[in-house]
Design a protein that fits this description.
The complex is a heterodimer of chains A (525) and B (408). Chain A is α+β, with helices and mostly antiparallel strands and 525 residues long. Chain A contains 17 helices and 21 strands. In chain A, the strands form 5 sheets. An 8-stranded mixed sheet of chain A has the order 8-7-6-17-18-19-16-20, with helices on both faces. In chain A, strands 1, 2, 12, 13, 14, 15 and 21 form a 7-stranded mixed sheet that branches. In chain A, β14 and β15 form a beta hairpin. Chain A is globular. Chain B has 408 residues and is of the alpha+beta class. Among the domains of chain B are: 143 residues, Probable tRNA modification gtpase trme, domain 1 (Gyrase A, domain 2, 2-Layer Sandwich), CATH 3.30.1360; 83 residues, Beta Barrel (Elongation Factor Tu (Ef-tu), domain 3), CATH 2.40.30. Chain B has a 6-stranded mixed sheet, sandwiched between helices. Chain B has a 6-stranded antiparallel β-barrel with strand order 14-17-16-15-18-19. The chains are: A alpha+beta (525), B alpha+beta (408). At the A-B interface, α11 of A face α3 and α4 of B.
């Protein structure tokens, strides 16, 4: 086979597919190579038992970028929400419950906090909105900028300045703060404090008292679902349906997607990328290669340090990526009975978190290589709103479990079964009888996420979301503009700006970088 | 005596915890000679600045034989199946052109093509090398080793080094009974058994004169020292020298000093203070055609774009040493400064190395001046002296390269 493509995209995760779709839309010949037998990567729907289908990893959409939805016609290709704006029910260990939906709160909460909530959200949403232009921007270089990059940098500065003087000062004051202090300053009730603290730390290796957790909270609020900023959506058919829609769009634009094609090596000749070698040895030539894999895997494993400058490969190897998040998926024989929650609550998002202090205490053991026995959980029961998720009358439960350290002292392979029991015990306290309902289960520890989903250190974002690893510093200083130091090699995944979450933004931005730098191959007439 | 400079006590209590500066294996001979306690810090070791008479030491380098203790030099042993490939990616030269038994001077750069350090690379055997340099390189070498099947081991303390330099150095060394020494060419390596140890001799040095560097296990160091002193008797002696005399000789030879003529790229804090090989007049060490090495991409770009600075040898009017002085074009525009400068007793010229902003020193070499401030008995005098850009070295005797070297 001597086919040669303009571009090869490694990995059919959502960003790889978004990138491929944009490249194909621009008329380029594109081949997507996926090691698994289906598209999706970490945005995949898994059948954990016959008829039980659940988002394997990520389960909620915080803002697939509207431009990506529009330009790739994702609605037409099947993107649909089971619910476009989920309610959140926060449950404390003492059985207290708080219900939150946008600006409204009800349940165990001080009256003053109910009054304060809309103003607090408005303040954060405004800051997040002003940061939004940076999502689809290639981070400007810090040195040696051209005119376009100077304009981008000015836009970013202007976006912050245009908040108005008071808001800008407020932003600069709180942006590097920790969420613990922020919620203490603004609310008195532990459950509403816990709700924001949980949003700030889910998926990260941070506790509410860690610096930079206000920034991660703002990051989560940048997105919008439909017209609603900061909304949380549950995709119909699970997260896999979202990537199926993006894949359909990419195919529609002419991209080829090949499954079961694991890449063994990115071939470099004369200091430029010339194509990829599959694990079975097959070579496929391409003008450029765009990798949806992590920067670590792409550069250190697939390219190899020898082809890179020593300092650059050292920096890539030092990206802070220690996952502290596990995923638990359960097939249930019936609807679980969470204490004090009604049917409407079960159709929304359930967060098990009593207070910011409790979350911080759950974070503590992870520093020493131990899991939290009573962990923070973000739970959805997709089958409550999506009939396709489970056989009639039965249900699936999807839980993001916060604090399960990648470097577990006793090792995950030895401790996985025991950890599952810990989690089921914990759930049983909130939903008595749930243990008896379990038909099948899937537990993904950070080690599994690294092995099966290629997340370095099992980190959902490929690299910690922290001020020193964002924007111009993501993945590392000097390589934030998607093009890697080897000619013809680009990154398009969560390891690149603006990071993880099913946004499509890194894929979109990478495609723009590829189109700006790489010319299509000349083809014989 | 300054307690900070107190040598380590080799009693049992301190055998495992070394306090203060380290001693080299030659210290038992060097310390009693150093009557002025004129010591300098060199990478954790004490190192002699002079032995009381710098002029005498300098003239020994140029007229008889001198020894300088180079044991503190950082030495890294690089071995393993990928040793050659590792070094090819590390340094700017093509190491495939350095045969076993040869030494090569080279530099290595960071990703931005800025010089981290310079040093000598000894090809000891198949996939077996030693890198000698002034600055610590452990972190950089470890970072560079990822992806290579290579072992990088610091062996600074395991090898004693003594630099024997000067016109009679060959005669002195011959008296140790090193058969075939006369055929050892510049940058060659050879080994001889010596009083129960292996003595490795490389025809290298930092003086630009005829000379050798002697490498031996620490246990053989004092025997070697004593043998050299004995061998020097009757032919002008062997003079222990300090760094001050050596610095004069290396400026005459046009050699660079790290932290003097360039700032190691990993030590610089301020942007723009580092230098590329091209900017240090070391472009001849850079082989862009050999394939990937760290900094190559940046150096290719620099070559296309043009360099910011140049390092040139200068001859300065008058006799006032000009080190640290600013260089002006037309006595008006500041264009750089003198990084190293001395009155050269051998060349009988006021010489220096200057770092200048291009095109000055490169295409514009006319009408350059240096502003020297000299303190003479509580009076500062300002001299505006004319600067001529010349070719280095300032002193290059034929004996430096003659093989066999002539006996003196």
């Amino acid at each position: 086979m001597s086919t040669r493509y303009d571009h090869i995209v490694i990995g059919a995760g959502h960003n790889g597919l978004v990138c491929a779709a944009y490249l194909a839309r621009a008329g380029r010949s594109v081949l997507v190579l996926e090691a698994a037998e289906e598209v999706g990567g970490a945005a995949r729907t898994a059948e954990i038992a016959p008829g039980f289908r659940v988002s394997a990893c990520a389960h909620l959409l915080y803002g697939l970028h509207p431009r990506v939805i529009r330009e790739l016609s994702l609605r037409r290709h099947g993107l649909d929400y089971a619910s476009a704006s989920l309610q959140t029910a926060v449950m404390g260990a003492d059985g207290s419950v708080l219900r939150l939906k946008t600006d409204h709160a009800a349940g165990v909460i001080d009256a003053a906090d109910i009054v304060a909530l809309p103003g607090f959200r408005r303040r954060l949403l405004k800051m997040a909105r002003h940061l939004r232009p940076m999502l689809l921007m290639q981070p400007p270089r810090l040195a040696g900028r051209d005119l376009k990059q100077n304009i981008d940098l000015a836009r970013l500065g202007f976006a912050i300045r245009s908040m108005g003087q008071a808001d800008m000062r407020d932003f600069l004051r709180i942006a590097t703060m920790n969420v613990f202090d922020l919620v203490q300053d603004n609310f008195a009730s532990p459950l509403i404090q816990a709700a924001f603290a949980a949003d700030a730390v889910l998926g990260t290796n941070l506790g509410p008292r860690s610096p930079g957790t206000v920034l991660t909270l703002l990051y989560r609020l940048i997105g919008e679902v439909g017209p609603v900023q900061g909304a949380v959506a549950l995709p119909r058919g699970g997260m896999g349906a979202v990537t199926q829609a993006i894949a359909a769009s990419a195919r529609d634009f002419g991209a080829t997607i090949r499954m079961g094609a694991a890449v063994g090596r990115i071939r470099v000749e004369g200091e430029r990328v010339v194509g990829v070698e599959l694990a079975d040895g097959e070579f496929i030539a391409a003008g450029s290669v765009v990798s949806n894999a992590s920067p670590q895997r792409t550069l250190l494993d697939l390219v190899g340090p020898r082809h890179l400058d020593a300092g650059f490969q050292r920096d890539i190897g030092k990206i802070r990526a220690k996952g502290n998040t596990a995923k638990l998926n359960l097939a249930l024989s019936g609807l679980p009975a969470f204490r004090g929650l009604d049917a409407a609550d079960l159709a929304g998002r359930i967060v098990l978190a009593g207070s910011p202090s409790a979350i911080e205490a759950q974070f503590d053991p992870s520093k020493y290589g131990e899991w939290s026995p009573e962990p923070l959980m973000e739970i959805t029961i997709p089958s409550a709103t999506d009939a396709t998720a489970a056989p009639s009358g039965q249900h699936v439960l999807s839980a993001v479990v916060q604090y399960a350290p990648y470097r577990l002292k006793e090792g995950w392979d030895a401790a996985r079964a025991r950890y599952l029991e810990v989690l089921l015990d914990h759930l049983e306290r909130f939903a008595p009888g749930i243990r008896q309902q379990v038909v099948a289960q899937q537990l993904l520890t950070p080690l599994d996420l690294e092995r099966d989903y290629g997340m370095p250190g099992g980190h959902w974002h490929y690299g910690e979301l922290a001020i020193d690893q964002l924007l111009m510093l993501r993945p590392v200083n000097g390589a934030a503009r998607y093009a890697m130091p080897i000619a013809g090699l680009f990154l398009c995944g969560a390891g690149a700006h603006p990071g993880g979450g099913v946004t499509g933004a890194p894929g979109h931005n990478a495609a723009q970088a590829v189109l700006a730098e790489a010319k299509p191959l000349e083809r014989a007439a | 005596m300054n307690p900070d400079l107190a040598p380590a006590q080799h009693d049992s209590a301190r055998a495992t915890t070394r306090i203060g500066l380290k001693e080299t294996p030659f210290a038992p001979r060097l310390r009693p000679l150093n009557q002025f306690e004129a010591l300098e810090y060199w990478q954790g070791y004490w190192s002699p600045a002079h032995f009381g008479n710098m002029e005498r030491e300098y003239f020994a380098i140029r007229n008889t034989a001198s020894v300088f203790d180079i044991s503190p030099m950082n030495k890294y042993r690089i071995t393993g199946p990928d040793a050659d490939a590792f070094l090819q990616r590390l340094v700017t030269r093509d190491v495939t052109k350095i045969s076993v038994g040869r030494v090569a001077y080279t530099v290595w750069c960071d990703d931005a093509g800025q010089v981290i350090d310079d040093g000598t690379l000894f090809h000891l055997g198949e996939q077996d090398w030693r890198l000698c340099c002034q600055e610590h390189q452990t972190f950089w070498l470890e970072a560079s080793a990822r992806g290579f099947d290579v072992s990088v081991r610091e062996e600074t303390e395991e090898v004693a080094g003594l630099s024997l330099q000067g016109p009679t150095s060959f005669s002195v060394l011959s008296r140790l009974g090193l058969g075939g020494l006369e055929t050892l060419k510049p940058f060659g390596i050879r080994r001889w058994p010596f009083r129960g140890h292996e003595l490795m001799v490389s025809r290298t040095g930092f003086t630009g004169d005829l000379g050798y560097e002697l490498w031996i296990a620490p246990g053989g160091a004092l025997d070697l020292w004593d043998a050299l002193m004995e061998a020097g008797q009757g032919i002008g002696g062997v003079e222990p020298t300090g760094s001050h005399a050596l610095n004069m000789a290396r400026i005459e030879a046009g050699f660079l000093g790290a932290q003097l003529d360039f700032i190691p790229a990993d030590k610089a804090i301020r942007a723009g203070r580092t230098r590329s090989p091209y900017e240090l007049n070391l472009g001849w060490l850079v082989d862009l055609a050999k394939g990937q090495f760290t900094g190559r991409k940046a150096l290719v770009e620099e070559k296309a774009r043009g360099s910011r600075y140049c390092l040139v040898a200068v001859d300065i009017e008058g006799k006032e040493p000009a080190e640290g002085s600013l260089v002006y074009h037309k006595q008006k525009t500041e264009v750089g400064h003198i990084t190293s400068g001395i009155w050269s007793p051998t060349a009988k010229r006021n010489i220096g190395l200057a770092s200048l902003k291009r095109p000055f020193g490169d295409t514009k070499t006319e009408d350059l001046w240096v502003e020297i401030y000299a303190l003479h008995e509580l009076r500062w005098e300002k001299v505006m002296a004319r600067v001529r850009v010349v070719k280095a070295p300032f002193f290059e005797p034929a004996r430096r390269r003659a093989t066999p070297p002539l006996p003196f």
